[in-house]
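Can anyone check this?
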Amino acid sequence: MADEPQTIRAGVSEAPPEPADDETSGGMVSFPYDRMTVDQFRHRFPRARWRDDIKAWWVPGKTASRRIGRWLAEQEAEADAHADARGRDAFDFDPIVSPYLDIGRAGFQIRTPYSRTVVEELREIRFARWDGDLRLWHVPFRSFEELRSHWPAIEVAARRNEPAERARRAEERKGTEDEVKSKARSSERRKRRYPLPSDALPPLGVPVAISYGIVVFTEITGEVVDPDPVSEFYPGAGEDDVWGLWRAPALDELLSAWPVKAIPEPRGLWWMPTIEELRPARRAARVRESTEPVRRR
């Protein structure tokens, strides 16, 4: 058609403003211009016409919006199928050879020893998802190029966290100063306490950020902090601080937490979290709560 533009926007609407004729019921749709797509659309909707005033296609009829929605869903599914086919062909041409990656019916299956780095890398890949029942990650074929770019970091982190490799490093650390510090740090963390300024206490029962993540404080003990023995663990602790007891936040608490736009400077011992801090905490809480029944069994 001579009056078709080279590109038009994707979207659906119930009805356009000020119809050009008496057809007041219908729906409009716009999508990136492609001759084949336009031909398929005209075949599916023979009564459709291009409206230059709204830069979209107008389909008359009371059920037009539903029919347009079904057609768009079919187009999206077809596009995903083509993208999956291209990704599978790219993998066949230049495969990733690794003991941590298998081919499934609908994509790649990735199973590695637990590693925070692996989790963070996979979360950066579009459409990747964790399967709590099979204890592995699914990545569709369409995301192969993204998977390839993240794979070197995933492979290195997975090998580093193999049980034998972890045991070897633990054996090398035995009796060293690093091992002593690591055990002391773990022992302190298990106490689930944190120094807080007595004149600026955090709200109880609300997710707040501290130096090693987001927590919920449950109690202010009133016990004064002696900074000398714990200065290595809490560099900002002072003589006027008191101990607060904390727990890990639940997912619903993190979802309902209202993020702040920016962290005030200078940063104190605690602060209200930003959305950048809440997002990974929410993902971690979601995984933690989904795997809790498995751990209990």
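Reply from J.R.: I decoded it. Residues 278 and 293 are 24 Å apart (CA to CA).
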